[in-house]
Structure formats: structure tokens, C-alpha cells
Task: structure prediction
Amino acid sequence: MTINNARRFVERMRQDRSFRKKALETTGPDDLLTFLQEEEMPFSQRELVEAMAECMEQLELQMGS
Result:
């Protein structure tokens, strides 16, 4: 399921500096898509937004505790 790929992407961006650096070094949407395919985690923009919203909600819950 590609939403799970988006969730994995968000989590790796949070935890893995090397991965984050590689993702941020992509030069545009096509280059980023190629990178995601190479990492075997394709997903849509909508799925990325959903995964990011979930992450933000988790952070808000942690901060509220």
C-alpha cells in the first residue's frame, strides 16, 4: 500500500540524516520520483500529505502530554 510508503518516507526523513540529505539533494519532482522508486517507496502527493498530518498529530499529542 503506497500510504505505508509515505509513512516510511516521513519516518526516515525524521530519523535518518543520510536519507534526508539524499532526498533534499534531488533537483526536482522527476528526480525525487526516481529517488523514491529506487528506495522502493513510491507514493502520491495526497498520501504524503496524509502521512505528514499523522506525524504532526503524533507530535502534538506528545507535546500535550
